Amino acid sequence: MESKNTPELGTDAEFPVNAQEPVAETSGSDPEPSSEESAPAKPARAPRKPVARKPTTKPAGAAATDAPVDETELPGAAAAATKPSTAARKPAAAKATAGTTGAKRPAARKTAAAKTTAGAKTPAETPAAAKKPAAAKKPAARKPAARKQPAPPPAPPKPVVLQVSGLEKRFGQKVAVAGIDLEVREGSIYGVVGPNGAGKTTTLSMATGLLRPDAGAVTVHGADVWGDPEKAKRNMGVLPDRLRLFDRLTGAQLLHYSGVLRGLDVAEVRRRSADLVAAFGLEEATGRLVTDYSAGMTKKIALACAMIHSPRLLVLDEPFESVDPVSAANVTEILQRYVASGGTVVLSSHSMDLIQRVCDTVAVVVDGHILASGPVDEVRAGATLEERFVELAGGRKAAEGMEWLHTFSD
Ligand SMILES: Nc1ncnc2c1ncn2[C@@H]1O[C@H](COP(=O)(O)OP(=O)(O)OP(=O)(O)O)[C@@H](O)[C@H]1O
């Protein structure tokens, strides 16, 4: 890498990371069903004891929910107490089934069972209705037409946040990046995968203004990363690979300077630092020098520094490398909530499983070229992303040779 991860100055328009919590969907309000549709089926015994049932003034639905339940009258008492009408229907339904197979069932029961499935009546109507043939009634015919909805129009595409066009980079004779194009849209978690030395870090370094390309262009929210770097970098948070941190600072100091250099006031930096430190589980480490952190802790404090100014775009080179599974799950959740509120993430990783779970879009980079890109499900084409990756990357090398490894030197 040629360039340094120098903190960029700028006065950010703030973009609260969790400003908008994803709102839980509430169920839509269905059109009120007709009284005929909504009325619970009549109690099964009604046809059998017509003289014992007095007509009631309450509608069947009200009676089902309001009237105290006489447990001696309803079989299956506990469940029936909350849904008396349903419970009452069950024996009739059972009889309906039995009635179709049992030769000894009386004809009256078959009629009642048929009515239970065809359409419900109030108990008051039951005795009379029981005498009529069920086939005469066709109440359900109106229902499908009333519920038909026109298909919603397709959502317009989200705005492009990061546009990478024709990027090229050569180190001496080595072509690291040979013409890469990426288009990352708002609200996306875009994964960049590829074998070691494929050109991922070189690409992301050029995309974030850390490394000058030999050819190509990069814009962030329309601002040219090389033509107007201050504007382009203002809305960007970067976790570079091969971390170059001011590691003679404590974690707290590093967060402080990362926030202040991004234009946040001290009180806000303190508040956000506390949130980030808690989210990444670094409470015990903030007073220690970053140079004494473990690899995973270093990665997490660098991630926190990339997020503290609430950028609209996060570009993270291997954010999960060295990070323990619990912390990785926390980071994943933080990123998912961030994109749900309108943020955008580009990340590289060697974990195909993680990319498949977390990212909506992926680009497979091999030898400085993109060999496949698009929605994760399209790229993996029915296989796992790992299988597809291995196929694109040229397959596995057979584990031949190296017999010397099995001879042991002692
Ligand atoms: N500063 C540099 N000087 C010389 N060669 C470089 C430099 N940076 C990268 N390269 C070469 O460019 C190629 C791409 O490297 P890069 O770091 O982009 O790969 P990568 O896909 O990120 O790999 P990894 O997954 O191992 O991190 C490699 O062959 C690497 O040796």
Automatic annotation (TrEMBL):
Compartmental location: Cell membrane
Biased composition (Basic residues): 45-56
Sequence ranges of Pro residues compositional bias: 150-159
Record-level Gene Ontology MF annotations: ATP binding; ATP hydrolysis activity
Gene Ontology terms: cellular component: plasma membrane
Segment forming the signal sequence: none
Limits of the ABC transporter domain: 162-392
Keyword ATP-binding attributed: yes
Identification of the protein by name: ABC transporter domain-containing protein
Organism, as annotated: Arenivirga flava
Lineage: Bacteria, Bacillati, Actinomycetota, Actinomycetes, Micrococcales
